[in-house]
């Protein structure tokens, strides 16, 4: 080594003036150096002052890094250096040079400045490259000395010259003398730089903190963090991952990558939920300091989370993970693709991010809650107004579809029996893509013990079935659910208080538990209201029916108390009545229209043990053929089109009482068969129902037809006739019991005088005479109407005139009433006229229906439609 050192050049002894100048320059340099704070000023000053005394081209200062036994350029001469134009200049500036080679070791060991000719040393093994680089730019000689700090070398000053022999003894002495000051100046600069760096970090954190304090949304957070981290220069970007509500997984929250990557991979990364306990994320969350890890090494360690593979593919190598934590709560992790970390700075940044994240999450939660509450309020307004099923359905469909992107698969309600569940509502369009007949399938009554129904009803807040998982586990319904493309089936019990009232099945990708609970509660109440409302309406209807019967009964009791007629014929009737009243025997009352068949039927019922219950009357002629069965035996909801509610039939209504089948001869054959079965078996099933209902009724039937002839003509079933004809009571026509005409006349005169307020006390004998000589085709009813009308026309206290129908006038009237009439009016008048001719007899032999050649019940319904009442055909 020594051989490389140049001998000090011989020079003349300095003159006193030269010595004085040297002293002055060094003094000035010493003064300047102590004031230097700025890195670049030092070498500029040094060059300016020393060049007044000696010749050299440029200087640099290098610093020793004990960590890896290297020295690195620290201060550069930006003005004088000839190597700045060398192509390897930048490389030299950034390089680290090893301390373990002979050249620098010689410098380290030399206590005084030491110089070398570059050509002697630059090509020696391990010699630092900057020697040759300098040489290539004309530099020939180097003078170096150590810079010391607290007795230890901290670096070197390098002085270069392009003229060999520039470094005289005097020059060396000056450098030796000035080295301690240079050392302390360099130390000051280093300290100053550190201080500046800290200041910078502080002001950076302050800036960041004020930036992030105003962050309220995810996007704002991403922007602030991006700006802040940008200063740390992460080569691959950063990810903020947030702990999900389930507290077991994490999902990316903000992804910011400096390079563009495959969008497919990014989508996969962003939508994933990674288990927290994957061996890496949990380690970071547990670590108080940032964790620097190598992606490749973590994969080798056996961590299988997919994000590591993706990161590897994206070129991430060294990644720092820092937990984002506020107080004792972890919110997530910040991952930075960065090799070197400034731990305090990162921790400062993360503390701020954590607060912002906590704020955002709190904010999100508040606004989500507010949204959910507002939604529930809206829904509640819509749903609670629903009074009918249709209104409820409209409200539910509107809200589910528009606001929640949710489909109603099925809503079942528990039946009154508490055992069965009936479909109440479902979305017919939902399973359009499925090949099964969903409507048929869903219309099934199931029991509350059915596997899925039982599970849901037993659960506290319902169940969630993941469609994919259900498919794997072989749930047969899941095939159907899959056709909708929605991910989950949410199934909840509908409850009012503690009572299960049904189940609801909703298909959706995601539903918040609060919303689910809320809508279920609202729907439950709405359904309970609707059911209660339906029940109320049904009760109301039943009460109305019962009320009608009651009124009728009161009317009849009044009538019955005075059945008029003491003649022999009627005596026979009374005998038969008293014989049969007490028993349960079926009675068949026969007689022409208006002879009092219904009156007798009620009298039998009212003297029977069943008298405390209402007698139920069915007019077989007045029933439309298609409704006879449902009228008699009732129907279940949905039994046929239009059967909106369940209906109780007349037989069920008359249970434990008497059913009076008026005009039994008019009953169609099909209904006769059903009636026969009910009479024989004493039990019935409602239409569309499965349940058998036992009934105990006493039957009284009446007809003005000759049933024997009807049987012969094939219009009446013989077996039914025998069942009904157990105890026949024939009623005589009024013309055959003229002895009863007078008492009946008095009875009606008194009744209608009272009703109309006219005081008719007497009936003229000629009137009785006239009445006795008439044939009374309409029997007692005709007499009753005649008296009622005559009373209205009577002028004094005696009934002197009655208006018995005169058939001779009929033709004249006919011509008059045909002119200027609508078809309906003509039809109405024609029917009235025909009824008059038949003395009000509507059906049966010699009746109006007979003359008009239409069935009795058709005539009945026509009369109803045209508003024809008895008053019309018993008037003149
Ligand atoms: N013996 C009687 N005493 C008092 N009123 C009677 C008597 N017979 C019949 N009436 C009255 O005559 C009217 C017709 O009687 P009811 O309706 O019982 O006859 P009906 O034979 O059933 O007639 P239809 O065959 O047309 O149904 C009723 O107002 C009834 O009160």
TrEMBL record:
Sigma-54 factor interaction domain span: 563-792
Pfam families tied to this protein: AAA_lid_14, HTH_8, Sigma54_activat
UniProt keyword annotation of Manganese present: no
Keywords: Activator, ATP-binding, DNA-binding, Nucleotide-binding, Transcription, Transcription regulation
Superkingdom: Bacteria
InterPro entries in alphabetical order: AAA+_ATPase, AAA_lid_NorR, GAF, GAF-like_dom_sf, Homeodomain-like_sf, HTH_Fis, P-loop_NTPase, Sigma_54_int
The keyword DNA-binding appears for this protein: yes
GO terms, molecular function: ATP binding; sequence-specific DNA binding
Gene Ontology BP terms: regulation of DNA-templated transcription
Signal sequence bounds: none
Transmembrane segments: none
Alphabetized PANTHER family for the sequence: PTS-DEPENDENT DIHYDROXYACETONE KINASE OPERON REGULATORY PROTEIN-RELATED, TRANSCRIPTIONAL REGULATORY PROTEIN
Protein name stated in the entry: Transcriptional regulator containing GAF, AAA-type ATPase, and DNA-binding Fis domains
Lineage: Bacteria, Pseudomonadati, Bacteroidota, Cytophagia, Cytophagales
């Amino acid at each position: 080594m020594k051989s490389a050192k140049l001998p000090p050049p011989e020079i003349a002894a300095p003159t006193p003036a030269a010595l004085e100048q040297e002293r002055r320059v060094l003094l000035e340099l010493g003064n300047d150096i102590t004031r230097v704070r700025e890195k670049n000023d030092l070498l500029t000053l040094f060059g300016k002052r020393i060049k007044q005394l000696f010749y050299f081209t440029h200087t640099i200062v290098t610093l020793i890094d004990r960590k890896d036994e290297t020295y690195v350029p620290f201060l550069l001469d930006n003005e004088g250096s000839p190597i700045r134009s060398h192509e390897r200049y930048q490389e030299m500036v950034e390089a680290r040079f090893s301390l373990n080679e002979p050249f620098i070791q010689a410098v380290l060991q030399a206590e005084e400045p030491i110089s070398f000719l570059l050509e002697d040393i630059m090509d020696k093994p391990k010699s630092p490259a900057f020697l040759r680089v300098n040489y290539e730019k004309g530099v020939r000689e180097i003078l170096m000395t150590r810079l010391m700090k607290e007795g230890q070398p901290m670096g070197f000053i390098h002085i270069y010259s392009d003229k060999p022999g520039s470094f005289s003894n005097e020059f060396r002495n000056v450098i030796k003398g000035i080295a301690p000051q240079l050392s302390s100046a360099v130390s000051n600069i280093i300290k100053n730089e550190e201080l500046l760096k800290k200041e910078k970090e502080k002001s950076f954190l302050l800036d960041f903190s004020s930036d992030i304090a105003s962050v309220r949304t995810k996007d704002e957070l991403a922007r602030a963090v991006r700006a802040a981290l940008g200063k740390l220069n992460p080569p691959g970007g950063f990810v903020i991952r947030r702990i999900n509500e389930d507290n077991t997984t994490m999902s990316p929250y903000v992804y910011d990558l400096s390079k563009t990557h495959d969008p497919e991979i990014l989508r996969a990364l962003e939508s994933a939920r990674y288990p927290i306990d994957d061996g890496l994320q949990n380690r970071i969350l547990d670590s108080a300091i940032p964790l620097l890890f190598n992606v490749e090494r973590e994969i080798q360690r056996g961590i299988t989370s997919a994000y590591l593979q993706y990161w590897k593919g994206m070129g991430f190598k060294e990644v720092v993970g820092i937990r984002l934590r506020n107080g004792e709560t972890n919110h997530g992790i910040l991952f930075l693709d960065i090799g070197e970390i400034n731990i305090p700075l990162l921790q400062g940044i993360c503390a701020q991010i954590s607060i912002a994240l906590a704020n955002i999450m709190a904010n999100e939660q508040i606004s989500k809650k507010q949204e959910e509450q507002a939604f529930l309020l809206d829904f509640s307004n819509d749903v609670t107004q629903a009074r009918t099923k249709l209104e409820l359905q409209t409200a539910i469909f509107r809200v589910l579809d528009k606001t929640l992107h949710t489909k109603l698969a099925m809503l079942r309600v528990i039946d009154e029996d508490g055992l069965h569940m009936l479909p109440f509502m479902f979305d017919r369009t939902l399973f359009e893509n499925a090949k099964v007949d969903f409507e048929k399938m869903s219309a099934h009554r199931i029991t509350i013990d059915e596997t899925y129904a039982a599970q849901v009803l037993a659960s506290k807040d319902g169940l969630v079935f993941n469609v994919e998982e259900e498919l794997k586990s072989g749930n047969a319904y899941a095939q159907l659910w899959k056709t909708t493309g929605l991910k989950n089936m949410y199934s909840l019990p509908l409850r009012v208080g503690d009572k299960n009232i049904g189940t609801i099945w909703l298909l959706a990708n995601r539903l918040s538990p609060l919303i689910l609970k809320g809508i279920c509660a609202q729907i439950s109440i709405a359904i309970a209201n609707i059911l209660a409302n339906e029940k109320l309406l049904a009760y109301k209807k039943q009460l109305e029916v019962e009320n009608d019967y009651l009124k009728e009964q009161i009317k009849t009791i009044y009538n019955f108390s005075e059945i008029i007629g003491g003649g022999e014929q009627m005596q026979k009737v009374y005998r038969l009545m008293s014989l049969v009243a007490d028993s349960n025997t079926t009675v068949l009352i026969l007689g022409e229209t208006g002879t009092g068949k219904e009156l007798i039927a009620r009298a039998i019922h009212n003297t029977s043990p069943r008298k405390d219950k209402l007698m139920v009357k069915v007019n077989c002629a007045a029933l439309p053929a298609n409704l006879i069965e449902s009228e008699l035996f009732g129907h279940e909801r949905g039994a046929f089109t239009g059967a909106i509610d369940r209906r109780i039939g007349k037989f069920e209504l008359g249970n434990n009482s008497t059913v009076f089948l008026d005009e039994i001869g008019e009953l169609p054959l099909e209904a006769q068969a059903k009636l026969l079965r009910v009479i024989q078996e004493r039990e019935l099933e409602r239409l569309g129902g499965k349940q058998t209902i036992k009934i105990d009724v006493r039957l009284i039937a009446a007809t003005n037809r000759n049933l024997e002839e009807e049987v012969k003509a094939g219009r009446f079933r013989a077996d039914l006739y025998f069942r009904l004809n157990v105890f026949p009571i024939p009623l005589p026509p009024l013309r055959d019991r003229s002895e009863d005409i007078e008492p009946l006349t008095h009875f009606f005169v008194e009744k209608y005088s009272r009703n109309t307020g006219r005081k008719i006390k007497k009936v003229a004998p000629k009137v009785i005479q006239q009445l006795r000589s008439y044939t009374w085709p309409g029997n007692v009813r005709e007499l009753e109407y005649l008296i009622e009308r005559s009373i209205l026309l009577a002028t004094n206290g005696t009934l002197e005139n009655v208006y018995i129908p005169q058939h001779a006038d009929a033709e004249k009237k006919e011509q008059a009433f045909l002119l200027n009439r609508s078809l309906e009016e003509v039809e109405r008048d024609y029917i009235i006229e025909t009824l008059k001719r038949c003395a009000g007899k509507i059906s049966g032999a010699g009746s109006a229906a007979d003359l008009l050649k239409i069935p009795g019940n058709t005539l009945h319904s026509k009369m109803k439609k045209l508003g024809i009442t008895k008053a019309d055909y018993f008037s003149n």
